[in-house]
Amino acid sequence: MNTNLNPTAVEELNFLFDLDGFFINPEQWDIALAQRIAHSEDMGEMDALQTELLLTLRDEFQKFGAVTALSHICHLNGLDADCLHQLFRSPRQAWRIAGLPNPGEEAKAYLA
C-alpha cells in the first residue's frame, strides 16, 4: 500500500482490501466509501470530475471485466488522455478508490 496514507483511516478500511491494496468485494462500494478511501490517502474531498471518472472506470470494468485503456476513460468524459494522471496520484490510486478488484499482475503494471 501507499506510504502516504493516513494510518488511522487506513486501519479502519484495511479489511476491505487484499494484500496488494485492491478491493475484495466491489459490490460493497459506494461514493461515500470512495470518499473515505480518498481521505485515507490524504486526497481530501474528491470533486465531481474525479467522482465521474471513478464511475466511468467502474462502468467500463463491469462491461468488459478488465482494465480499459485509461485514455479511453478520459475520452468518455471529454478530457485529455492523461486525465487520470492529472486528477489522481496514479491510475492505480483511481482504481483503488473506485473499489475495483485486483486486476492481475499484467494490469497492475499498466496502472502504475
Short summary:
By secondary structure, the chain is mainly alpha-helical. Helices cover 54% and strands 0% of the residues.
Structural summary, described in words:
The protein has 112 residues and is an all-alpha fold. The protein is 54% helix and 0% strand. The chain contains seven helices and no strands. It has helices spanning 7-13, 31-40, 48-64, 70-76, 83-87, 91-97, 105-111. α1 (7-13) runs antiparallel to α2 (31-40). The longest helix is centred in the middle third of the chain and has 17 residues, at 48-64. The chain starts with 6 loop residues before the first helix and ends with a helix. The relative contact order is 0.18.
List the uncertain runs.
1-8
Largest sheet: none
Tally of alpha and pi helices: 7
Report the order of strands and helices.
HHHHHHH
Q: What shape does the CA trace take? A: globular
Into which percent range does the helicity of residues fall? 40-55%
**Overall strand count:** 0
Mean pLDDT: 87
Rounded to the nearest angstrom, the distance between the terminal CA atoms is 12 Å
Q: Estimate the strand proportion.
A: under 5%
How much is the radius of gyration in Å? 13 Å
> Could you say which structural class the secondary elements and strand pairing correspond to?
mainly alpha
Oligomeric state of the chains present here: single chain
Considering the chains and any ligands shown, give keywords for the structure:
single chain; mainly alpha; disordered N terminus; globular; 112 residues
